[in-house]
Amino acid sequence: MESVALALPVLLAIMALEFYFSKKRGKKYFSFPDTISNLSIGIIDRLCSLLFAGFFYFVYQYLQTHFAILVIKPTALNWLIMFMLVDFLWYWYHRASHEVNIFWAQHVVHHSSKEFNYIVGARVTILQSFVRLLFWCILPVIGFTAPMIVLMLLIHAVYQFFTHTQMVGKLGFLEYFLVTPSHHRVHHGSNEKYLDKNYGGFFIVWDRLFGTFAEEKEQVKFGLTKPLTSRSLIWQIFHVWVELYAAVKLEKRWVNKLKILFGKPDLINPNIRKKAEKFFLTKKIKGKISDLFKQYIVYQMAFSLLALILLLYFSQALKIWETYAIVTGIVLTLINCGAIMEQRKWVFHLEFARFVLIILAAGCYNVQWIAPGVIVLCVFLIYYSSLQRFYFSRYLAPSPINSI
Predict the structure, then answer these.
(1) Which residues contact 365 (CB under 8 A, 6 or more apart)?
(2) Closest to 347 (Cα-Cα) out of 235, 236, 232, 239
(3) What pLDDT digit, counting tens, does each position of 229-288 carry?
């Protein structure tokens, strides 16, 4: 985890450089709401990876120990063979994630941003890792060891991160056999001619072989064919699961239910999302959020990133309850950022929940802080309504969220 903690600032620096140079060139590749949403989802994924890091390694090791067909040593030739195999499996995992609804439900999060930049490259969820596990399981069964698999998957993932940019044009002869930023821009496009194209991770040859290749020839429109209108972090992650459940429930016959689950996304009635949003998403507050609260979101995001880096670096030294307290605090903070942008009426109650968490964590860390914490909490409760009114008086200043 320390290596991940050290690598994270480097990746953040690369994202910052892309932002700087895009602004310098006058390119509008970033917007405030999407950037915050993309970072939030990326942070959630890193937190989940921290909690489940040992699980995936255990599965690979268990399968290799008990079911391996061959004994594969880490020679140069075997590394090359595994790299080709990993990329081949990635193509089919990625294709299934677009063409099978139960897989699309976890992968859609990566595509729901209207932007395309390095931050979008980090917009993934732990659910994708569990689905990928179904495809990667063949590797230890063949005989590749857990350390080899984990390292190779990391290398493969890092390469794909760098294909998420609009700052790099076409790369000449490399376009014929590698997945380039141009190819991956097509993959993220909602243009009709770009749908379900360019699934490759490292080599584009798989798409050329299996008829899913498309060249970038027209301006790419990024995002979903039916874009999300909500900035809610929870809704962005789980909305397709809700839509899928509703679509299956509407079908009477089991055959039709299975068709929905294992069919393509266009089998889900688009009207379901409107009804689901009306049911699950609370009403918004009328008005624009203030520049003060825009800055407040930026500070919270900076705190979340710093807390994530420190958590990754010191995770081995922390107690279990300390780890889960920090993770909970970060998650509540990210949900809070989405709720502010979404202008949800319950946002102040979430602020209070974070405040209570801080008091509880302080009390667990040092019992001497329990009494002062309880006093502060009682004062907060007495003046709850007044504090809530003050909060929203600052929140609803008439200044819109502009692009960064």
Answers:
(1) 322
(2) 232
(3) 887 888 889 999 999 999 999 888 999 999 999 999 988 988 898 888 877 776 666 666
Residues 259, 332: Cα–Cα separation, whole Å: 37
Q: What is the pTM of this model?
A: 0.87
Looking at the chain, how many residues does it have? 404
Q: For residue 170, give the amino acid letter.
A: K
CB 332, CB 350: distance < 8 Å = yes
Phi, psi of 363 (to 5 degrees): -65, -40
Single-letter residue type at 265: P
Neighbours of 167 (CB within 10 A): 14
Instruction: Give the model confidence (pLDDT) of 181-223 as tens digits.
Output: 999 999 999 999 999 999 999 999 999 999 999 999 999 999 9
> And the tokens for 113?
């941003």
Are 349 and 380 within 8 A, CB to CB?
no
